[in-house]
């Protein structure tokens, strides 16, 4: 399968090269040239497959020509063996025909493990075959860093450098990164804020001359196509468990960069009968403003109790725009050029297509806390703040009670003790067993000045892979 850029001016790449790159050279994001579509009979025949078996059916067409069937099966089996729950993505019922899809059973307790466990093992296989070593570089304000580190820690051909803002991530989140002591894992605490970290990563991708000649940077944020691909699987898994394709299913997704819900949209295009796809946002509501009032404008960042959704702009929305504009790369280039001014307006036809595909709803901190409290009182089930936002948005936008509503639980509540306490719990939620000693473990990280020369020479000098 070939992959093309949303801005229409970069060469098409095959799967291997798409995984090993970042943005397209024209500034766009890569998407598959065509999407595989499955018939209703074929989807029906998958009822009862294990998560791993289903993942193989769904991902095989995307990797054809680059990864053999046997290899893909092995990568999937390695990636999901680190999950605690046998079902990988179990469902829990919270009300009549309302379900929570627990996507936090992986090693770092957030849904990002689904994509990053897979990506780590995939990279390992590709690099071994190519006899190549790479440098993974990323910035994190929370969940991505630890999931990426867990995904890459056992990869012989990868050095991973994760930048976090010094003293500005929570203790749980920092320790999940800094207590991983493998030689190829490098945590940098930058004396700056998250934007400084991100700008440094962007600049480094733009000019990689600080690296030895035989190394290149690989992106592990959600612009990497393989992450989106791996996330399509759990929509099918939940759908099949609740009676699809014989009946439709709806999903509500706590949304930040639009990676997760974009995977849901792809699942629908590939044949899963999805009725509603709900975009749930916190006070950083650019997507809700865009859908409800055609206001896609940058607003100042707000720090909320659901920090993994604190974004000003959703980077993967460009992939959606590409489809809304009938895959016209010139149009997308124009829109993104306009957006440099801080705002863009969608055409009537693009906007009405978007409104047909998605519902949207915004939930602020106070309402979110009430939801955690209310659900706990009724069911003794403890939601994390991101999941609570998704559940509230589902309840407010739902059109039909007879269609199952699946709310994606993107993190375990133990990752966000502050919000949980504010919602009325008098103790911090317990960390799962494998992390119970997190606060006793040895930490290792390097505090570096907010200076690109310092960071780049640290990277070049400490390669271990
Ligand atoms: C990353 C993240 C999100 C947002 O997902 P996107 O794919 O960026 O929209 C939501 N909740 C949690 C807990 C996350 O870590």
UniProtKB/TrEMBL annotation:
Q: Which Pfam families does this one have?
A: THR4_C (PF24857), Thr_synth_N (PF14821)
Name the EC number(s).
4.2.3.1
Coiled coil start-end = none
Which domain of life does this protein belong to? Answer: Bacteria
The pathway entry for this protein reads as: Amino-acid biosynthesis
Threonine synthase N-terminal domain residues are 2-80
Keywords from the named record? Amino-acid biosynthesis, Lyase, Pyridoxal phosphate
Q: What InterPro entries does the record tag this protein with?
A: Ser/Thr_deHydtase_PyrdxlP-BS, Thr_synth_N, Thr_synth_N_sf, Thr_synthase-like, Threonine_Synthase, TrpB-like_PALP_sf
UniProt similarity note? Belongs to the threonine synthase family.
User: What's the protein here called?
Assistant: Threonine synthase
Q: State the species of origin.
A: Marinimicrobium koreense
């Amino acid at each position: 399968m070939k992959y093309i850029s949303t801005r229409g001016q970069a060469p098409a790449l095959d799967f291997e090269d798409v995984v090993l790159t970042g943005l397209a050279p024209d500034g766009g994001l890569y998407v598959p040239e065509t999407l595989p579509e499955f018939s209703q009979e074929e989807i029906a025949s998958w009822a009862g497959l294990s998560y791993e078996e289903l993942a193989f059916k769904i991902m095989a067409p995307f990797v054809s020509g680059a990864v053999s069937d046997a290899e893909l099966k092995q990568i999937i089996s390695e990636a999901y063996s680190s999950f605690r729950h046998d079902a990988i993505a179990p469902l829990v019922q919270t009300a009549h025909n309302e379900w929570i899809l627990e996507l936090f059973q992986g090693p770092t307790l957030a849904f990002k493990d689904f994509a990053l466990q897979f990506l780590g093992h995939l990279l390992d296989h590709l690099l071994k075959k190519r006899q190549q070593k790479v440098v993974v570089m990323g910035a994190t304000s929370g969940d991505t860093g630890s999931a990426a580190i867990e995904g890459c820690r056992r990869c012989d051909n990868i050095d991973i450098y994760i930048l976090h803002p010094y003293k500005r991530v929570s203790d749980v989140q920092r320790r999940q990164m800094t207590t991983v002591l493998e030689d190829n894992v490098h945590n940098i605490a930058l004396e700056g804020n998250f934007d400084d970290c991100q700008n440094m990563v962007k600049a480094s991708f733009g000019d990689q001359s600080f690296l030895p000649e035989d190394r290149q940077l690989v992106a592990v944020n959600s612009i990497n196509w393989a992450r989106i691909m791996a996330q399509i699987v759990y929509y099918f898994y939940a759908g099949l468990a609740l009676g699809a394709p014989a009946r439709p299913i709806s999903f509500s997704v706590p949304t930040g960069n639009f990676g997760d819900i974009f995977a849901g949209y792809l699942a629908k295009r590939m044949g899963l009968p999805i009725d509603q796809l709900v975009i749930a946002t916190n006070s950083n509501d650019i997507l809700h403003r865009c859908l409800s009032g055609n206001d896609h404008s940058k607003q100042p960042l707000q720090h909320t109790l659901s920090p993994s959704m604190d974004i000003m702009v959703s980077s993967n929305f460009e992939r959606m725009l590409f489809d809304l504009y009938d895959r016209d790369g010139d149009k997308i280039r124009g829109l993104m050029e306009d957006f440099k001014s801080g705002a863009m307006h969608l055409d009537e036809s693009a906007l009405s297509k978007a409104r047909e595909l998605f519902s949207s709803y915004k939930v602020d901190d106070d309402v979110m806390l009430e939801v955690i409290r209310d659900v706990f009182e009724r069911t003794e089930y403890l939601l994390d703040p991101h999941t609570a936002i998704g559940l509230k948005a589902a309840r407010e936008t739902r059109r039909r009670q007879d269609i199952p509503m699946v709310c994606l639980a993107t993190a375990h509540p133990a990752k966000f003790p502050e919000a949980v306490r504010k919602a009325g719990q008098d103790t911090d939620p317990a960390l799962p067993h494998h992390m119970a000693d997190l606060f006793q473990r040895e930490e290792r990280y390097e505090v570096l000045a907010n200076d690109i020369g310092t960071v780049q020479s640290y990277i070049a000098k400490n390669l271990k892979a």
